[in-house]
């Protein structure tokens, strides 16, 4: 008996399946399908191989369901009107579609006018086909590509979903989705945050370098729009990012468009701009916010440098830094008081190099004192740090586009940044796909 069981366990795994799909109910609201299938999994001692076979069987069922559903979106072949022009069917032409479960080949009507020219496929349009992919598969692939390169996406799909597709096709699908995000600029994305809950809106922008093909290291830009309640808690954030460009015109235009959309949703709250000392950031923010706030942590960095230049002993430098940092944040005239402290440091004897370091901090505070009323900002529960945008530079750009050996074309970088911004912005990824489902491509 033991020998018999041992022999059964040693059988190699095979699968045989027979499937048929029939419609058992159809009305104006739904179609009910029935799949009859037999799947044979011989006995063996590898659970992993058994699961691979089960995955294949499940994919086969899913592919057959998907193929049947795709037929619903085809026409009966009668003439149709497209943009006021009469199109007639050239017959049903088979086409391969990629789905989450596998490739399916569906004969569908392809239309053309009597004068020739471009063809039109109602099934592709009505089923929201994207670059030969069903919308679910396009969503799956582009979401994975937002996080990882095409090689990693290919391996993930093969290992975890039983789907193998080429790296170039992964890039093609993701590029199409990225383009759709950019093309539909008028779509409004809800925040799902009630107007009564929002007390202020924080707007920030910053840049970080990435490597472009043939152009070296250049600065890509990212902007964030965050909603805050009356306690200063962040409720929602959305991002906008663009690859490097001279003048930042495209980024500024896209980011301004997003700010306008949010202002329509929340017209009666305070808009605050938070940024570092870069002049072009404030040039952009100046007319778009009611309050300008210099990032507290950038100001603190300048104070830290000044303390190290002014004091020989580390404990003295630390004590002075802690004192003025608290003063800057918690005193009503904190910026003025710290400025006086900085001026007093200039009277100390020191090397020319150290004096220059302190002078930089003095100049920084002189230029930005009007943006350093942190005592008032804290009372209003407004954000005083640009942590959101600093994190965005890392999460949106650095983690995906600055890995070892990566170089990007402008289009490639634009695709990934578009995907990542929507994927990382609260609720926007799902809303985008809901709009694709509703309005088409």
Structural summary, described in words:
It is a single chain. The protein has 441 residues and is an alpha+beta fold. The longest helix is centred in the N-terminal third of the chain and has 26 residues, at 47-72. Strand 3 (80-82) and strand 4 form a beta hairpin. It is 49% helix and 23% strand. The chain has 4 domains: 2-72, no CATH class; 80-183, no CATH class; 195-295 and 385-439, 2-Layer Sandwich (Nucleotidyltransferase, domain 5), CATH 3.30.420; 297-377. It has helices at 2-9, 47-72, 122-126, 135-147, 150-161, 167-183, 249-265, 279-285, 296-310, 314-330, 334-345, 352-368, 374-379, 387-401, 410-424, 428-439, and strands at 16-26, 31-40, 80-82, 85-99, 102-113, 116-120, 200-212, 216-228, 234-242, 270-275, 291-294.
In brief:
This protein starts with a helix and ends with a helix. Helix content is 49%, strand content 23%.
């Amino acid at each position: 008996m033991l020998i018999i069981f041992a022999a059964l366990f040693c059988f190699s795994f095979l699968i045989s399946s027979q499937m048929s799909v029939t419609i058992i109910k159809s009305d104006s609201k739904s179609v009910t399908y029935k799949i009859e299938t037999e799947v044979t999994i011989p006995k063996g001692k590898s659970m992993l191989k058994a699961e691979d076979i089960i995955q294949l069987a499940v994919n086969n069922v899913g592919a057959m369901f998907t193929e049947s559903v795709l037929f619903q979106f085809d026409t009966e072949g009668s003439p149709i009107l497209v943009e006021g022009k009469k199109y007639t069917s050239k017959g049903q032409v088979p086409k391969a579609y990629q789905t989450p479960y596998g490739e399916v080949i569906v004969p569908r009507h392809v239309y053309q006018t009597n004068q020739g020219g471009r063809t039109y496929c109602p099934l592709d349009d009505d089923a929201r086909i994207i670059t030969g992919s069903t919308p679910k598969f396009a969503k799956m692939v582009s979401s994975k590509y937002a996080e990882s390169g095409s090689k990693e996406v290919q391996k993930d799909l093969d290992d975890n979903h039983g789907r193998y597709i080429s790296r170039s096709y992964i890039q093609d699908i993701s590029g199409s989705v990225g383009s759709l995000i950019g093309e539909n600029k008028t779509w409004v994305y809800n925040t799902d945050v009630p107007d009564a809950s929002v007390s202020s809106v924080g707007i920030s922008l910053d840049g970080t370098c990435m490597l472009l093909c043939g152009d070296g290291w250049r600065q890509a830009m990212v902007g964030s729009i965050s909603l805050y309640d009356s306690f200063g808690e962040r409720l929602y954030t959305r991002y906008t990012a663009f690859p490097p460009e001279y003048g930042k015109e495209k980024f500024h235009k896209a980011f301004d468009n997003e700010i306008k959309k949010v202002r329509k949703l929340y017209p009666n709250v305070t808009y605050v701009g938070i940024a570092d000392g870069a002049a072009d950031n404030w040039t952009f923010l100046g007319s778009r916010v009611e309050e300008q706030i210099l990032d507290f942590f950038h100001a603190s960095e300048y104070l830290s440098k000044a303390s190290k230049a002014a004091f020989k002993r580390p404990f003295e430098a630390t004590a002075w830094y802690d004192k003025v940092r608290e003063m800057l944040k918690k005193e009503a005239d904190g910026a003025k008081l710290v400025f006086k402290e900085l001026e007093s440091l200039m009277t100390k004897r020191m090397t020319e190099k150290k004096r220059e370091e302190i002078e930089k901090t003095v100049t920084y505070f002189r230029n930005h004192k009007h943006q350093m009323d942190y005592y008032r900002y804290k009372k209003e529960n407004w954000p005083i740090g640009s942590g959101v945008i600093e994190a965005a530079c890392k999460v949106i750009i650095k983690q995906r586009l600055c890995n070892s050996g990566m170089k990007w074309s402008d289009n490639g970088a634009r695709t990934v940044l578009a995907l990542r911004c929507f994927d990382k912005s609260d609720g926007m990824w799902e809303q985008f796909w809901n709009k694709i489902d509703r309005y088409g491509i």
